[in-house]
């Protein structure tokens, strides 16, 4: 009977640093026009594919869901920009606050070793 060593692989400090960097990229995404979020999203997908730790898997999924829900809301609300600038700006500001809340909440949960 073979033993799967991946099940016993422990997390290194570098793994935690990567997660903190990913949360940082997602949090600062609005200041980069979304470029940081796309970079973080790609890394989330790559790292999630080989992840066996439930905490890390949960946080990768959380960041991925946050990204896609934000993008969906931005697309759905984009017609408001055609009506007037103010409704569009207000809607985008609300989405930005929600995104920021999700990033900070997830980051705090990860820092406390809790699931989201």
Spell out the blueprint of helices and strands.
Layout: H1 13-27, H2 35-49, H3 54-77, H4 80-83, H5 85-111
Please, could you describe this protein's structure?
The chain is mainly alpha-helical and about 120 residues long. The protein has one domain. It contains five helices and no strands. Helix 1 (about 15-25) runs antiparallel to helix 2 and helix 3 (about 55-75) packs antiparallel against helix 5 (about 85-110). The longest helix has 27 residues, at about 85-110.
Quaternary state of this entry equals: single chain
Flag low-confidence runs.
Answer: none
Pattern of helices and strands? HHHHH
Number of helices: 5
What Rg is obtained from the alpha carbons, in whole angstroms?
A: 17 Å
- Major sheet attributes: none
Q: Could you say which overall geometry the principal axes of the C-alpha atoms support?
A: elongated
- How far apart the termini lie comes to 36 Å
Strand coverage percent: under 5%
* Count of individual domains: 1
Mean pLDDT value: 90
**Helix content range:** over 70%
The count of DSSP E runs of length 2 or more, i.e. the number of strands, is 0
Structural class label: mainly alpha
């Amino acid at each position: 009977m073979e033993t799967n060593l991946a099940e016993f692989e422990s997390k290194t400090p570098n793994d935690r640093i990567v997660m903190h960097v990913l949360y940082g990229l997602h949090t600062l995404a609005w200041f980069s026009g979304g470029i940081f979020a796309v970079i973080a999203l790609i890394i989330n997908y790559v790292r999630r594919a080989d992840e066996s730790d439930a905490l890390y898997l949960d946080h990768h999924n959380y960041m991925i869901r946050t990204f896609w829900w934000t993008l969906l809301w931005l697309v759905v609300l984009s017609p408001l920009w055609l009506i007037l600038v103010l409704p569009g700006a207000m809607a985008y500001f609300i989405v930005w606050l929600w995104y920021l809340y999700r990033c900070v909440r997830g980051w705090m949960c990860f820092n406390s070793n809790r699931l989201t």
